[in-house]
Amino acid sequence: MSDEDLYDTDHIRFLEDLWGDGFLSPGGPDEVARVLDGVDLAGKHVLDIGCGSGAIAVLMAQDYGAARVTGIDVEDPVCTAARARVGQAGLAERVSITKVVPGPFPFPDVTFDVVFSKDSIIHIPDKSNLAAESFRVLKPQGRFAASDWLMSHDGEPSPQMAHYLKMEALEFAMASPDRYEQAMTEAGFTEVELVNRAPWYAGVAAQELEELSGANRDRWRADHDPAFIDHQIEIWTAMVPVLQSGEHCPHHIRARKPA
User: Fold this and answer.
1) Element (H, E) at 233
2) DSSP one-letter string for 134-195
3) Distance between CA 25 and CA 6 in Å, rounded?
4) Is the dihedral of CA 37, 38, 42, 46 positive or negative?
């Protein structure tokens, strides 16, 4: 494991305990279905950006009929976990996991039918390059379908938002919905659609905070490092208010590459 890994095995275990086996972001299979609303994966080749520990890559092959899923991530622990999950599912011939370095995607032009990501492109600072690279590797009529953690405005965050980001300490690079729409349009995408999920996650995050800090706190502190859990409670305590205010606004982002 690199000293720079943001998601080590302990962090992965905690997130999967909170959000479901193989899921490193909230909502589980139901939220994946919402991200993919109107996007047909049957028989398609899918690029999964930031595949994490692999549950969604497996899900897209098993339940959505994707012919091939190419999962990419930048850290060894999650790639190792994802490869193990793919092997356990017997999907090694259809799902591949590749560790990549940040930068241009290591794939030729017009390789994929669908570019997908679930709450991982927050770690990519340059949304214009992300949009341009996604457009490049998509085939004509290919679809982009992702979720990301956005901030409602450009410029400096409020003191409350800045405190939350400091607590997370995960090198988040949040863009505004306007910035995302601009980046996708400038890259050449059409049918750009952004769906605000903050109202949903504000309620879910409040429930998660109660789970971590309420009657079950001792169970969480017994199953994980107590200091780690205490810090997660600090993070959620900082996150819930900025979700409720709407400054922190997770979105779904969908678009199409024209013919």
Assistant:
1) helix 226-245
2) HHHHEEEEEEEEEEE--BSSSSSPPHHHHHHHHHH-S------HHHHHHHHHHHT-EEEEEE
3) 14
4) negative
Q: pLDDT of 152-208, one tens digit each?
A: 999 999 999 999 998 887 678 899 999 999 999 999 999 999 999 999 999 999 999
124-165 pLDDT, tens digit per residue, is 999 999 999 999 999 999 999 999 999 999 999 999 999 999
Query: Tokens for 197?
Result: 């999920």
End-to-end CA distance of the chain: 42
| pTM (predicted TM-score) | 0.92
Which helix (H) or strand (E) segment holds residue 70: the answer is strand 68-73
Q: Which CATH architecture has domain 9-151+173-198+250-256?
A: 3-Layer(aba) Sandwich (3.40)
In the block, tokens 């560790």 appear at 99
Q: Which two tokens stand for residue 136?
A: 């490049």
How high is the pLDDT of residue 170? 66
Neighbouring-strand partners of residue 151: 248
- The bridge status of strand 68-73 relative to strand 45-49 is parallel
119: three-class secondary structure by DSSP: coil
